[in-house]
Amino acid sequence: MKAVKKLLDNVDDAVTDSLAGFAQAHADLVEVNWRPLYVRRRGGTPPGQVAVVSGGGSGHEPLHAGFVGEGMLAAAIPGEMFTSPSAPQIAAAYRSAEAGAGVLAIVKNYTGDILNFGLAAELVELDDIAVEQVVVDDDVAVEDSTFTAGRRGVAGTLLVEKIAGAAAARGDSLAEVTACARHVLDNVASMGVALAAGTVPAVGRPGFDLGPDEIEIGVGIHGEPGRRREPHAPATEITRALLEPICADLALEPGERVLLLVNGMGGTPLLEQYLVYGRARAMLEGRGVTVERSLVGNYVTSLDMHGVSLTVLRLDDALIDLWDAPTHTPALR
Amino acid sequence: MKAVKKLLDNVDDAVTDSLAGFAQAHADLVEVNWRPLYVRRRGGTPPGQVAVVSGGGSGHEPLHAGFVGEGMLAAAIPGEMFTSPSAPQIAAAYRSAEAGAGVLAIVKNYTGDILNFGLAAELVELDDIAVEQVVVDDDVAVEDSTFTAGRRGVAGTLLVEKIAGAAAARGDSLAEVTACARHVLDNVASMGVALAAGTVPAVGRPGFDLGPDEIEIGVGIHGEPGRRREPHAPATEITRALLEPICADLALEPGERVLLLVNGMGGTPLLEQYLVYGRARAMLEGRGVTVERSLVGNYVTSLDMHGVSLTVLRLDDALIDLWDAPTHTPALR
User: What count of other Cβ atoms lies within 10 Å of the Cβ of residue B86?
Assistant: First the structure.
């Protein structure tokens, strides 16, 4: 496959070079600890507040570091490209973010992340830091995948981070913030499509091969295979192929209210993302479901993959209040 | 060149299909008039406030419709893909947005836009609507271009829209808002690079051809040729090739303060954009220039072009106050 050019200096330093720019651009909101590497809310977690923390491999920007700040994450731990951060690295972030009320770790369901976040929780137990952990597995495309036992964690992660962060900001206890995150997890489902693969800088070529008229329905955010490859189709058909499994998984009923997230994978024009949003919304409304809140944009990307994912979250008044609460982060406010 | 897949239904309806989704996703902020087509701030311009209006060909999203809302644009007029909106369409938006204090039109310097925005101003003069117009020509890459006599208007447009919109929101007169916009124009300069071309849906193939190890320095936002094609280089070298002509054009001196905008062209991962931001900032600081404000992201795109542009705005206290003023739009807040 054709080589893909990148705006980088040394590929080995891409993650830290980029984070250095990120830290300077958002010095009013975040601060970076370099050894070990994590991003923390500027000034640390307010005393007595639960520290909501997340992390994982890089290449999905703005996830997670872009969501550090008031009303969302207390810290984010970036790994190397598509690679879990290490347990000592995660543990250092826990210690730094903890402010007397414990840590809620939001972990996407990938084998490396599950292992290292689990080990990190054990490491800080010795310091008497209480850690709860929730595992995001919102991708309804496939059970088990390249890097995953069970479902993958994808763009629903952003919603868990936002809502748990809002619960922490209003002063909920660790048990309450954790329950809030679990409530989101019980009511969220996602599925994505790729029209063209993203390119990991160190590889320099697209991560998988799609024919000139072929798309991958149910693709993962590391380019993992989805449910099937099929011929490229109009946006309405593709949207339906993503939305129907989501609605089935959530067992959505007429009269229910939802948040609809259309997430660009990094290489998709906003014009296409809004078009898909309109189609998905019309289909939900056709089922008697009301779209009460919306988000459209590049939030959980796969480098420069061309594609989108749909995420639907079943809403209730409590979730709406938390979604609407103030957020001040580099990527969401 | 290889065909590029798109998430669309009918290519002829792509702009309106996408706007329909946009309008639904942001119904709290904007409203769309379909015939003729324009996007207006929800509920219209507050009485007595200058209506700051902009528009131009589609394909650069979120520009301009994404910047309609409190503290920025009163209305935006989208043309077809890379095509100016018509004079009657623009005039209808002026009439709809005008709230007793006149209209400031912010026009990017392309031949079609200059013609049609000029005609629109004449059309509404008959209705006793005062229209002032400023022309954005911030691209220092080339004099005269494919669709342009003189310099092209590129990502600096966003800064003019934000700052003029803030002046209007605080109650400045039409003459004052216009002077504010001109002050930005006198102190802003931009230049871009393409690593790979974007694809207009109706064409289905990249708009220009770059060799596998070739980049276009000084590219326009419609893929117009820049200063030169050269071999692909490390990000630091590319950043320098963009920043030096900008600094020369602005005659930046040590001790001055600037806003630095790194703008993704639509297909560029955020990771690369932040990396370029860090490099550009270091170079500015190396010249004794202080980066006081920053913006990094996809704001003035060229569909799915892979590349970035740099924009530098010389700041003073008055501009900083206007930049920091509240903004509530779909794409910037």
Answer: 18
CA distance B127 to chain A (A): 34
Take residue A117 and report the two structure tokens written for it: 């976040």
Q: Which of B240, B312, B235 is nearest to B269 (CA)?
A: B235
**Of residues B14, B269, B275, nearest to A17 (C-beta):** B275
Nearest to A274 among B3, B22, B281 (CB): B22
- Annotated active-site residue B183? The verdict is no
Secondary structure (3-state) at B330: coil
- Select from B6, B7, B235 the Cβ nearest to the Cβ of A7: B235
**Selected catalytic residue, list B26, B183, B222, B306:** B222
The string of pLDDT tens digits covering residues B204-239 is: 999 998 998 999 999 999 999 999 999 999 999 999
CA pair distance A222, A113, nearest whole angstrom: 14
Nearest to A132 by CA among A189, A53, A44, A41: A53
Q: Quick one: closest CA in A to B215, which residue?
A: A5
The yes-or-no answer on residue B222 being catalytic is: yes
The complex's ipTM works out to 0.97
Contacts of A235 in chain B (CB under 8 A): 7-9, 17
pTM of the predicted structure, to 2 decimals = 0.98
Helix A111-125 and helix A87-97, axial crossing angle in degrees, nearest 10: 50
Closest of B333, B16, B309, B52 to residue B184, by C-alpha:
B52
C-alpha–C-alpha distance, residues A242 and A235, integer Å: 11
Q: ∠ CA(A62), CA(A68), CA(A71), 5° rounding?
A: 120
Contact A328, A266 (CB under 8 A): no
